[in-house]
Design brief:
Elements (H helix, E strand, L loop, with lengths): L3 E6 L6 E7 L7 E4 L22 H17 L2 E4 L8 E7 L2 E8 L6
Parallel strand pairs: 3-4
Antiparallel strand pairs: 1-2, 2-3, 4-5, 5-6
């Protein structure tokens, strides 16, 4: 439905799919399940990639495109491999992306 969007990456592993949950009441918020494209808060910075990414230059371009789009919609990032940060906002200062307002865990009601 309209509450889920999918983004694709070919830089880490060709065909990697990332799910974005969109707030049903607003197009200006939601959360992206970052998978291995951005596995943790440190990887939000564009040139940071993993040694086993298949196509790191492509991955940097993909991160730039998706972070630009998500930053514009105030979408949060959910990290799958970060032991200290579960979710964070995206900041863009002087052309550099970073993770801000980190939460160590998600707590539901």
């Amino acid at each position: 439905g309209s509450s889920v969007r999918f983004h694709y990456s070919h830089g880490h592993t060709p065909g990697l799919m990332l799910a974005e949950i969109v707030d049903a009441n607003s197009e200006h918020s939601g959360v992206l399940f970052c998978a291995d494209l951005i596995p943790g808060a440190a990887w939000v910075h564009l040139p940071v990639t993993m040694g086993y990414d298949r196509f790191p230059e492509m991955l940097i371009d993909e991160k730039r495109a998706i972070l630009t789009e998500l930053h514009g919609r105030q979408t949060r990032l959910f990290f799958t491999h970060d032991p200290n940060v579960a979710i964070a906002d995206i900041d863009l200062q002087g052309g550099r992306f970073s993770a801000v307002n980190p939460q160590a865990e998600l707590v539901g009601n």
